[in-house]
Design a protein that fits this description.
Helix content is 19%, strand content 22%. By secondary structure, it is α+β, with helices and mostly antiparallel strands. The strands form four sheets. The protein has a three-stranded antiparallel sheet with strand order 3-4-9. The longest helix is centred in the N-terminal third of the chain and has 9 residues.
């Protein structure tokens, strides 16, 4: 895992999102935004887009409301998740900058994603301003930027699922798209330049 050389946070602020302040929010409120978040219709490996959608609306929410919505997807696969005690895992993962470890929780769609987390995901920080106007340092699950080497997205590999056919990342993960300068489209970066894919509670 290495920091991105070209990625920068957009710092974008979205228009009003009613679920941010609704009296009785539901994870389904986030799921209803699927088509506006994933414009190519495929959430595979694209949890950075869920994360950016929520972070752009963080200023409309309380700390607790933002945490609630971050429990609604798997950081590894991008799959929507209905959070409960059975899909919540406690993990201890390396921090990218301090050389030590952080312990927290994440929700997953299946246990193999927990193994992927331990192999490939690290923890970094980002200051997030909530609806009370206070900026707080929060911990996030992060990965390196795939757009540092975009040619890898076109490299064929054998998909171990769905019949074992040959495919590419650009085919199976259509929302992972690189812009000029090594920028991952739709991503927000952490304090040390890594791609945010979920909150670490």
């Amino acid at each position: 895992v290495s920091p991105s050389s070209g990625q920068r946070s957009t710092g974008a602020i979205a228009g009003p999102w009613p679920p941010a302040t609704a009296p009785n929010p539901s994870i389904q409120d986030l799921f209803r935004e699927y088509k506006s978040i994933f414009k190519y219709g495929n959430r595979n490996a694209a949890s950075h887009r869920w994360s950016t959608f929520l972070l752009e609306r963080a200023g409309q929410m309380t700390v607790e409301r933002l945490e609630f919505f971050f429990t609604g997807f798997c950081a590894v696969s991008g799959s929507p998740v209905r959070p409960n005690d059975y899909n919540r895992y406690r993990l201890t993962l390396p921090r990218v900058a301090r050389g030590d470890f952080a312990t927290g929780f994440m929700h997953y769609c299946s246990w193999p994603c927990v193994c992927d987390t331990q192999d490939f995901i690290r923890i970094d920080t980002l200051n997030v301003t909530s609806s009370d106007g206070i900026s707080r340092q929060r911990h996030f699950a992060v990965i390196g930027n795939p757009c540092d080497d975009p040619d890898q997205l076109e490299k064929p590999f054998v998909q171990p699922f769905y019949g074992g056919r040959s495919t590419t990342l650009s085919e199976t993960a259509r929302e992972v798209r690189c812009l000029e300068g090594g920028v991952l489209d739709g991503a927000t970066v952490s304090d040390h330049g890594f791609i945010i894919i979920s909150m670490f509670f």
